[in-house]
Amino acid sequence: MLGQVIVSGLAMGCIYALIALGYAYVWNTMAIVNFAAGEFLTFSAFVFVGTFTTSMHMPFWLAALLTAAVMALLGAVFSRLVFARLQRQRALVAIIATVGFGIFLKEMARIIYGPEPMLYDSPFGDGTLQLLGLRLPMQQLVIMVIVVIVMMLQYLVLRYSTIGKVMRATAVDRDTAALMGIPVNRVLAGTFAFSSVLAALAGILVAPLFYVTTEMGTLVGLKGFVAMIIGGFGSVPGAILGGVLLGVVENVGAFTISSTYKDAIAFAVLLVFLLVRPQGLLPERFADRA
Amino acid sequence: MNIPPTRPLAWLCVAAALALPIVLDLNIYYLHVLNLAWIAAIAALGLTVATGITGQIVLGQAALVGLGGYATALFMMRLHLPWFLALPLAMLLAVGVGIALGALSTRIKGHYLAITTLALNEIFRLVALNEEWLTGGPMGLRDIPTLSLPALGESVDRQLYLPLLGVAFGVYALTTHLRRTRIGRNMRAVRDDEIAAEAMGVNSHRVKTIAFVMCSALAALAGGLYVLLIGFVAPSNFTVFESIKMMLMVVLGGLGSIPGTFLGAVVITVLPEALRGLQTYYMAAFGLGVVLILLLAPRGLGVFGDWLLGSFLTGRREPEQEAPAGPLSLSAAAATAAREMPARAQTTRPAAPLLKVRNVSRQFGGVTALDAVSFEVKQGEILGLIGPNGSGKSTMINACSGTVRVGGCIELGTDRIENLSPWHIHARGVARIFQNVRLWETMTVLENVMVACGARRGGEAATRGAALAALERMGVRHLAQRRAGDLSFGQSRLVEMARAVVSEPQVLLLDEPAAGLRGGLILELSHILQRLRAQGMSILVVEHRIKLVMSMCDRVVVLNLGQKIAEDVPAAVMQSPTVIEAYLGERVPDPTAASSDLALATVR
Hints:
A: ABC transporter involved in vitamin B12 uptake, BtuC, two-stranded antiparallel ribbon, 11 helices, 3% strand, globular, disordered C terminus, B: Rossmann fold, four-stranded antiparallel β-sheet
């Protein structure tokens, strides 16, 4: 039983890792935390299930691709119109503004798709796979496989191209980066679009696990942030490790201690980490204490 | 004090407007919304103390309000206490929580504090939701006895309207007063630059604790009043969303403006009610409105509020520019200093060592910034600390002021001071300036210097007097009422000098004091420093300009790559081949007088 709890924790951890990775990328280019990330997840789940699947009857892959495209566009526009302008403000103003945008996004989902929760069956069926004496639900396996592929791809891109350096330079000093010939606005919009795609992917993958509601993303978004702190603020490998770890600890804790306090467990883990190891598991070398 | 006749009239208008709902016998629903606005204002003003004034981001104010509400309700229902005991007890409980939060905030800062307080809020909600034996679970506590003041009307909302308004204005007056006092200045200093505040003697732990205590006590007051008004509490009233709404009141009010927060609370409470006509769209409009306001007018209601409640109604303007009594520039101040010099100078020769640095080491990651450095600053001398870039000079200054922790031993007189808190070191008589000027930018120049005065016998007037005198010594008294962030770099430097000397320190640590000063002013600065020495201060100065070092230093210590490579009188140090090599990177082939002169010229 514990093995299965760990596996489903791993699957949820992969989702947290996706969101945490989005935070880390945005932090590394703009030095702002996007507290609307959870609502990006919610909105993309609605777009995916409500528009492309239920109304337009598209196959899974096409619907997923289109959702990612829509969210990338939304992210780029949001970044250009709102987010980039927040960078010169105090941190608190930026936090509240992104929270405000989150509320707007959540309410737009409710206005467009109605208040009723939507049900979405996994395109991979309800089947399970017997492996090493564990019964692994297909959807959880799919989540893990897809997330691992995405992580590897982003690692390769960052490792073998100058994009990573360009992003850092943009974060450290946007004006100087622009003077050095970096197309700053494109970098910012691109990064934000990428983090929106990560949120969209998370939304598509968790849609069969939960009912699709306007509240589904809020806590996932917060826990993604917790995961990034546990891993190390702004650290890309840290975000992945933190996400997976948080998912497992939370699930095991809910199983062994109390399921009603499942959400509290994640936050208790955060408090312990902040007091004991505030720099996170795999800190950025020059990670700022925010 | 002549009061313009418009002001009492204005006050009368405001009072009348606020009493109008009662006089007009307004619909109970409107009264109820206004009552909620006054309660929100109390909680938001508490939040302003922590977030707006002290800069600690708290996203869990609703939980603290909830704590006050639940505690008041439980004290009344379970312990059968009357409301006038239950409410203060609930506030006392919140004070305890505030102290704990203050302790937490010394370790957890910025974004981390935001997410931590948000997490605590969620945990509070979960506990309230699940511990039914105590909190009544999702249905909450019902039938709590509400406050009854029959003399003031027939319904609870009508009875409590004026009392709630009174309490809200009381809290407003309290927070406004707090902001102006020494504690309020210290809070703003911590917000603007915590490291500088600590180095200038502000005990940041205490200041933050006071801020959190105020924040949570006022939240509990708001929660208790809410319970006494509504007679009902449930977890859904204290969600993260409510906390964010309260933060929004603070942000909309211009982050730190108390009148702005008050207006913000009223707007954020009343606006959704007014938007109810939009039904499904109003929350979306609310979210979008927040983004637009923050993008277009981030100072928000603060500007309007400061004008209306700050200067218009109270007539309390910033003190007028006093006719500058002192010298108008550093040169004039230096001239004064020079005139006073002969009387006092050369009375004492450097005597006993005052600041003793022994085997001080510090590593940053793999880089050794300081490697077992030892030297002494003698009583009443100016010791120059020079060395190439990255040789550990600033780290040494940081170590002596307590900003950086080090290994080894630093003694002031007979006391060991290494690794003490910066404010303790400052209290023992060590003051400093920073390499990159670190003033508290949103505060006035005068306030900047007043913070560094610390607590002084004679109260505000004495502090103010001392601060003005220090500004005059640096020839910048005429800038006293300017915002520190508006000054030029050179002016800021002089203000920072004034801030450092106002506490009459024994030891002055100067990290490149001449940086940013125009050429002619440098020698004048040297006069000022010599006068300070004549008054008995010992000065450790990091400086790159050899001319300045030669003209004023009694002795010079040279650092290179974290190690001390020379210590002597300036002229001897300048001739030292090791020093020349460190600066120029290679040994001068023929160490004759001529080539050292050449080397020195290059250094210049």
